[in-house]
Amino acid sequence: MYAIIKYKKYGLMRFLSAIETSNAIERNIRRSGLPFALTEGFHKKPKISYLDPTPTGVVNLALYTRVDFSGRVEGVLSKLKETSLKGISPEKLWWTELNPNKLVTAYAFRILIPKNCTDLLAYDPARQIVIAEKSKSGPISYFFENVQFSSQGEFLVIRYEQKRDRLIRARYLYQPILREEECSVLVTCTEALCDGRKLSEILEESSWAIES
Prior knowledge:
Layout: E1 2-9, H1 18-32, E2 48-50, E3 59-68, H2 76-83, E4 88-95, H3 100-103, E5 106-114, E6 128-131, E7 136-139, H4 140-143, E8 145-152, E9 155-163, H5 171-174, E10 186-194, E11 197-198, H6 199-206, E12 209-211
Parallel strand pairs: 3-10
Antiparallel strand pairs: 1-3, 1-4, 2-3, 4-12, 5-9, 5-10, 6-7, 8-9, 10-11
Helix pairs in contact: 1-2
């Protein structure tokens, strides 16, 4: 029986690697005492699957985790909250057979940068970028879609979407508009998208029980 749990990774915990994050979630589930299903083999582990990891330092508000439980139990989310680490907290749970990895096609992101560090006139969606670590290249608009700029107090807010097969670091989008290299930047993954729809909306419609 499957449950999809939406975790939130923030604060100093955003600097954990993908492996460290998955280990923290696994420990959370083990410590809860819940009846989770185990993998086969000598080193048995909880049956857990994740979506694509975010780069180190990125806040993740869409850390969806699919857990296979050996049976339906009440109060799963509250038990997980009791044993979770501050900074990696379970926010909502859906009981459903849906598999997010078969549904999600893209992610929505948000960047916050002090206005005095940026020059929007330098933004050019046609600018060619080279992603050496992935041996890819192309215009900014190929990797970053639906880019929108707005203001929030003293900060410039950049919202954009990235398809799963075009995930690259946010710096390729914001570095060309920075006036100075030493500038505080906060990147947040805000939601997982399924052909334009929020995964959370689909889960709300398809789940037979929800815990929040």
